[in-house]
Design brief:
about 270 residues; alpha+beta; four-stranded mixed β-sheet; 6 strands; about 55% helix; globular; binds glutathione sulfonic acid
Length: about 270
């Protein structure tokens, strides 16, 4: 029976791919796949003959161990959920009510006393941008080389700057500062417009989607709710947003109740 392995270059994760024999039940298939996978880890000759098969075969063999613990808002988890969806990943969600959070037990277990918390097997992470980077490494969405990875980091930091301004408006200045924020928004958006206009592939960096693209897309969604015309002057941003929305898995996810039921922010402002 043929067996194949795929070693992901940017992560320590090893995916195992194996053709299913028509006589195998689902259970047999998973069990034997796991056994062969463990054997292949110990066996260098198997590793050196690595080869990649149809990636769809990965799904039945892997029980993705991702868990997101967060409040019932899109907030800082919108981008990672869009990314996981587009990368064909499943995740478990633990939704925390404000009352439960205020009890303090969970807060005490979070490195910086804040959510989101993300678990990948026994690895526990907080800080939404660290989580996005981790997913970028796991799923080949961190550029094609180190130079691109650094440029993606830079662009993601630019998205974070915009998100911090947005969060400040929503939670501290919404009633008094919205008009001024919208006036100044064009200046911020023009920076992303210039970068996107230069890359014919339509992404922020290189020729494939990265975690920074998902993050930018998510914050643009929020801004299109805040100010529906905000992209009108920016053809490259508009095309980027349309291209990301049209990716089939993202389109289906944005249409789903799981996405639509969640308010964007915790105080009801948007
Ligand atoms: N830099 C952190 C990140 O990127 O994850 C910020 C996380 C953060 O601000 N978390 C807020 C929180 O836990 C919730 S939200 O702003 O993301 O909606 N607040 C509760 C608290 O006790 O601080």
């Amino acid at each position: 029976m043929p067996c194949y392995c795929m070693l992901l270059p940017h992560s320590r994760q090893t995916l195992y791919l194996r053709q299913r024999d028509s006589s195998e039940t689902d259970g047999d298939y998973k069990l034997l796949s796991c056994a062969l996978f463990l054997q292949s880890l110990a066996d260098d000759s198997c590793r050196s003959s690595c080869c990649v098969l149809n990636a769809d075969l990965v799904l039945p063999t892997l029980n993705m161990p991702y868990t997101i613990t967060y409040f019932a808002v899109r907030g800082r988890c919108g981008a990672m959920k869009i990314m996981l969806t587009d990368q064909d990943q499943e995740w478990k969600e633990v939704e925390i009510s404000f009352d439960d959070w205020m009890k303090g037990d969970l807060k005490a277990t979070c490195v910086f006393g804040q959510l989101p918390k993300f678990q990948d097997g026994d690895l526990e992470l907080v800080q939404s941008n660290a989580i996005l980077r981790h997913l970028g490494r796991n799923h080949g969405a961190y550029g094609s080389n180190d130079k691109e990875a650094s440029q993606i980091d830079m662009m993601n930091d630019g998205v974070e700057d915009l998100r911090l301004k947005y969060v400040k408006l929503i939670y501290q200045e919404y009633d008094t500062g919205k008009d001024k924020y919208i006036q100044e928004l064009s200046d911020h958006l023009s920076k992303f417009e210039a970068v996107l206009a230069k890359n014919k592939a339509g992404f922020l960096v290189g020729n494939k989607v990265s975690f920074a693209d998902y993050n930018l897309f998510d914050i643009l969604l929020n801004h299109q709710v805040l100010c529906p015309t905000c992209l009108d002057k920016f053809p490259a941003l508009k095309a980027f947003s349309a291209m990301m929305s049209a990716r089939p898995k993202i389109k289906a996810f944005l249409d789903s109740d799981a996405w639509k039921k969640l308010p964007i922010n915790g105080n009801g402002k948007q």
